[in-house]
Each structure stands twice: as structure tokens, then as C-alpha cells.
Amino acid sequence: MADNSRTRAQLRRAVLSSYFGSVIEYYDFLLYATASAVVFNKVFFSNLDPVIGTIASLGTFTTGYLARPIGGVVFGHFGDLLGRKRMLVITMTMMGVASTLIGILPTYAQIGVWAPILLVVLRVLQGIAVGGEWGGAVLMSAEHATSRRGLWASFTNAGAPSGMVVSTALLTLMGAVTTDAQFLAWGWRIPFLLSVVLLAIGLFVRLKVQETPVFAATRRPTGAPLLEVLRHPRNLLLAIGVGFAAFVAQGTLTTYVLSYAVQAGFARQTVLNAITVSSIGAVLGIIGFSALSDRVGRRPVVLGGAVAVAVVGFLLFPLIDTGSAALLTLAVVLGQSIAHPAMYGPLAALCTELFATRTRYTGASLGYQIAGLGAGIGPVVFAAVAGAGTGVISTVIAACCLLTVVCVLILRESHQDDLAEPVAERLTGVER
Description:
Layout lengths: L1 H37 L1 H4 L6 H33 L1 H20 L4 H4 L2 H29 L6 H29 L2 H8 L1 H5 L1 H12 L6 H4 L8 H7 L2 H30 L4 H29 L1 H24 L3 H20 L2 H7 L3 H15 L1 H12 L5 H21 L12 H6 L4
């Protein structure tokens, strides 16, 4: 009984640590996303035409996503060799320091071209940190769980919209208490500087969690975990294919919609309010759909989400183009609170179930983070092709959802798998 109590206590700590760590990481990461859409083009790219400046600003946002697979490989490698917990302490520290430094970064008017260069460097560090954070955080919950793995692992994914809520709320607050000139001069910096406070709290929580029992009982890999994953690329490719559309949708519903709606005539605050409401709904949606996937399986939930996202993709821009704040809010709520969570929530458990324990950190992180490129590439591509009409954007989103459907149909159901099962079964994906 005492052992069961300790196990439950460690699971609670692991889930809390993973959720809170994810909130902090994505607060910092998505704070940059919001700022890149409404601030950075004026602060760090003030020498460019407004349209080109917006594309360049979103481009720096994309560099963070390009760096995420690097973080997945590096921290996945050492996480599979040395343990999940150690890597999570490092990734959280990296993110907190990088975000704080963005808060004190001089503008283009002050140091010229060095401003955007340093901004890109810090954004890359953010990307590497997030790339290493997600896999370890998910595994801390999933490998501590003895049942309802989808539910417990989903709290890491729920940290993303939670971080969006916090970051958007703080930017909203600063926008409300400052003039436009003050906000551009220093108001936007305050949320970045608060990262150092969140870092201290997060490290306090994280250091209290023990290493996962599944990892502790597993023989360490004798070679490089990445090479072992690449020797059996099927599951890695399927993980990428399943998750790519979810990230394209994520980037569209947050970063690109913010930029698009402001250019369509909406006040910045109106759009931020809509995204905040939808992000709160997304937290509940991610946890709810992930819990459902424990009962009915990962495949039907993700398939339903993919179809729903494709439909929302064709409704999104016509609803925004009406000029109605209520319909704008409805559009992003349908996408971010209902359709997207069905695709995104179960990904945490699904990715962990595709790989063996001794390569799970590397494999799950790499698959998830390569898929995550969709969220970074999507907004930039859509901004560049906006002149061709929103129908093109909606069609691209639908095509990505079709890729998800195909990959999910190829996958076998895994929600009842034992994470401690033999390496060969999990890497080859054979039926038991």
C-alpha cells in the first residue's frame, strides 16, 4: 500500500512538473510568436517595408521551429543515456535565460543589424530548449503512469495553450496600461523579463520529481539512440506524418490569424481576446480528447480531429472576413478549442508508444519536433502566398490533414501497449 501511495505521489509530481514546465516553456516560446506578429516588425525590422517587415518578423519566429529538431536530437540522446530529469532541468534553464535576454535586447534603431541577428540567435536557443523539453516532459508523465497514459501525458500538451493564455494575457495587460508608443518602447519587454521568475518557480517544482521507473529498469543503449531510431525509420516517419497537420493548424490559428485579422481591420486587442478565449478552451479540449483516446483508442480520435480541422480551414477566413468580432471568436474557438485538440492532444501518448524505452526520448522528440516545423513554416508560407487568396491556404491545410489521415490508417492502435515491452516489437510496429 505504501508503495502504491509513493507511486501515485510521484505520478502527481511528474504530471504537475511536466504541465508547469510546459506552461513556462510555451509561455516563452509563444510569447515570441505573438510579439513577432504585432511588435518585432516595428522594433527589430523598422528599416523594411511594413509587409516585408512582417514576413521577416514571422521568419525569425520560424527559426525557433527549425531549431526544435536539433534540441530533440541532442537532449533526446542524453536523455536516453543519462535520464529524463537531468535534461529537463537544462532545457528549462536555457529557455528562461534566452527569453529574459530577449527582454533586454536593443532595437534596430539602437544597434542596427545586430538587433535582428541577436534576436535570431536567442530564438534558436528557445527552439533548441523546447525541442528537448517536450519529449522529456511527456515521458516523465507517461513512464510514471500505470493506466490512463493518454490523460496524464496530455498535460504536457495542455501546457502549450496554457502558456499562450498567460503570454497573451500579459501582453494584453501591458497594452492596456501603456500607450502605443510606450508599448513599442518598453511595454512588450515586461512579459519577457518575467521569465526569470517563472524559471525559479519551475526549477523548484521539477527538482522534486524522481527519474521514471520505466527508464530506471531499462538497459542503456550501447550506441547512439538516434542511429537506432533511424535504422527503423517507419515509426519515426509515421509520427511526423501524423503530427504535421496539427502543427500547421496550430501556427495558423495563433500566429497567422493574429497577423491576418489585424491586417483585415480588427484591433489587435480584439484578436488577442479571441485567441485567449480559444486557448482556454484548448486546454480543456486537449485533456478531454486525450482521456477519450484512453477509452476508444488514439486512432479514431486523431482521425476525427483531422477531418474537423480540414473543415474549419475552409470556414476560418470567410468568418474573419465578415468583420464581426463574434464570428472571429467563433472561428478560432471552433479551430483551436474543438477541432485541433482532437488531433493534438493524443499526440503526446501516441508518440511515446511508437518507440522503445531506450530510444523513446530521441524518437518521440525527433518525430514530434520535425512535425512541429509545420507551425513555424505555415505562417510564413501563408503570409507569402496571401495574394493568391485564402482558398489556397485552406486547401493546403486540408492536404496536410489528408496526410494525417493516411498515416493514422497505417498505424496500429497502441493505447493499450505496455511501455516496457521488448525493443523489437515497438520499433518494428508488429502486431502482438
